[in-house]
Design brief:
The chain folds into 2 domains: 42 residues, no CATH class; 74 residues, no CATH class. It is 47% helix and 0% strand. Helix 4 crosses helix 5.
């Protein structure tokens, strides 16, 4: 039985290597092959993402947009958006190319930010 597990493990390893030759996992932004499993950006591009602290700051810029328009509870944004940036590329991949890994990355970032911030402990619903 151990031999079969050993054989399956090695076959998987070689098949993954072959698939990487045919369909390499590359960074969406810079094209590097230094990708961590299930990610779409290499560590260098991930570090360049323009994160905000809006989930932890009361009366942040997102809150101010809705002042006098809508009675909203706490609001926030995970990243600053600028044209021709990594953030625009991630949103384009998610919206138009249905890239699930890009959506997973963005959702994971927002989820961790919400979990860390105490302002969102008693909200009724999330509006993306």
């Amino acid at each position: 039985m151990n031999f079969i597990k050993y054989l399956v493990l090695h076959v998987k390893k070689y098949l993954n290597g072959f698939l990487h030759l045919v369909y390499p996992k590359i960074c969406l932004h810079c094209g590097s092959t230094d990708i961590i499993k299930f990610q779409v950006l290499c560590p260098n591009c991930y570090v360049q993402l323009p994160f905000t602290d809006f989930f932890e700051i009361e009366n942040n810029n997102v809150d101010k947009i809705f002042w006098g328009r809508l009675p909203l509870g706490p609001s926030g944004a995970a990243l600053f958006f600028t044209k021709n940036s990594i953030v625009q590329l991630l949103l384009f991949e998610l919206k138009y190319k249905q890239n699930k890994r890009a959506g997973w990355l963005l959702g994971n970032m927002i989820g961790w930010a919400l979990k860390k911030a105490n302002r969102f402990n008693e909200i009724d619903c999330l509006i993306p």
